[in-house]
Amino acid sequence: MTDSPQAGTEEFASGERLSMGIDPYERNWMRLSVAMLIGFFTIVTIAGFAMGIQVPGAESEVDPRNVMDTEPWASPGLREVSDGVYEAYIIAQAWSFSPREIEVPVGSKVTIYVTSPDLQHGFKITDTNVNMMVVPGQVSKLEFTFDTVGEFPYICHEYCGKGHATMFGTVTVVDAGGGESAAGTEINEGVDE
Ligand code: CUA
Residue 26: CB partners within 8 Å, gap ≥ 6? Predict the structure, then answer.
């Protein structure tokens, strides 16, 4: 890259490796790298300890071997907590989601819980900021308010094996005005294979 040797670095011209004399350009990149590492470490420390920002999954734990026998996971699906407030329990397993369909009236505030009995999966709802890693034994949790009528597919976005691409489902947000029955419908699919 550098054709002409710099002052005091004869070895460079002869093709030998420099041991102590580091090219200034390279030295600056090393300094920048170290500064960035210190910066990142500082940010992560402040975020984790001072601001309490934790990865999804710190919420709670469940024995991955007994997920299917543990309430509420034994009957995954949507539950209405109060008017317009829901909880959705979703199991991500190789290679499907249970349930595959969730229907809520527009404006619903849904707390989404996802866990996995087997592999590491992902849970992402298209066109929303719901995006979680799903780790066996951990419960990932996010809250989202569905303000727009429409269909919002959810997918596994962590590669989990040959059936990865078959892991998807849909959140259908229906018009609350015409959907009185929909609002009261308990979608509780359970095992649906
Ligand atoms: Cu589950 Cu990819």
Answer: none
